[in-house]
Design a protein that fits this description.
outer membrane lipoprotein receptor (LolB), chain A, twelve-stranded mixed sheet, 4 helices, single chain, 43% strand, 18% helix, 2 domains, disordered C terminus, seven-stranded antiparallel sheet, 19 strands, 328 residues, alpha+beta
Amino acid sequence: MKKLLILVMCCLLLCGCSKMNKSDLIRKFAKKVKNSDSYLLSGDLELRNQDDIYKYKVEVCYEKNSKYKVSLTNEGNSSTQIILKNEDGVYILTPSLNRSFKFQSDWPYNNSQIYLLEALVRDLKKDKVTMKNSDDSIVFNTPVDYPNNKNLVSQKIYFNKSGDLKKVIVYDIEDIPSMEFTINKIDYSPSFSKDHFTLDKIMGSQDKEEVKETLELEDTIYPLILPDNTKLANEEKIKKDHGERILMTFEGDSPFFLVEETASASDEFTIIPTNGEPYRLMDTLGIMTDNSLSWVSNGIEYYLVSDVLSSEEMVNIAESIYALPTMK
C-alpha cells in the first residue's frame, strides 16, 4: 500500500512538472523573442506538393517597430524574392525583374508564418496546444491559421532540451507534412544599418540576375487541375513588344480567365501598387486579391482571375501548373 501511494504521488508530481515545463518553455521563448530588439534567422524551407518538393534558402531580418526583411532563394532556379515590411508598407521585391509590388497589408500579423518567431509565439499561445518529450526534443503541436489555405491545420514546433528552436513542420488536414522549416542559426542581437530595411539599400545590394527573355512561348502550359464541370473554351495567342501573351478562357460551373506571358525586366526599378496580399506558392511569391492570383515563374508571368472561384480553388489551379516538369 505504501509503495502504491508513493507511485501515485510520483505520477502526480511528474504530471505537474510536465505542465509547468510546457508553460515555462513557452514563456521563456516568448520572452526571448519579445525582449529582442532585433534578430537574424537563417534556415532551409521545403514546400511539398504531392511528389514534388521545392527547396528554399531563407534569411529573416527583424528589427523592432515591425521591420521585416525575408529573403527566399529558390534552390531549383537560384532566383531570389524578398518580402519587406517597413514604415512605408509591405513589398514583394523581385530583383531579377527590377520590380516590386507594394501592399497596404497587415502582413505578417494576419496569419501563421512558419519562419517568423513572433508568429510562432502567437501559435504557441493558442488553445489546444500540446507538448511531447522525446529523447532529444521537446515538440509542441499547435493549430495554425492560413486563411487562404484551409487545408493546412496544424504544426509541430521542435525545441532541443536547452529550449532552442530547431524545426517547424506544418501539416495538412490528412496529417501529411506540407511545409518544413529547419533552423540553421538564430542571432537574437544582430546590428543592422539604418538603411537595412529600405528599398534603395536592398535593390542596390542585390546581384542583378540576367533574365533570359523568351520571345516566344513554345507551348501553352495548361493547369492539371480544373474545377468540376469546367473546361477550356477559348485560347488566343497575341504578340507583344517583348514576347507573347496567351489568353485562355475557361467556362462551366466555375469559370475563370488565365493569362500567360513572357516576363521582361524593367529598365528602371518599378513599384506597382496593389490591394492584394503576399501569397507563397510552391516556387514563387504571388499576389492574392479577392478575385485574382498573379505570379511569375521561370520567366513567365501568370494572371488568374475569377468572380466565382475561392482563393483556395485559385491556388489549387495555380499549383497544378507547377507539377509540369518544364516548370521545375
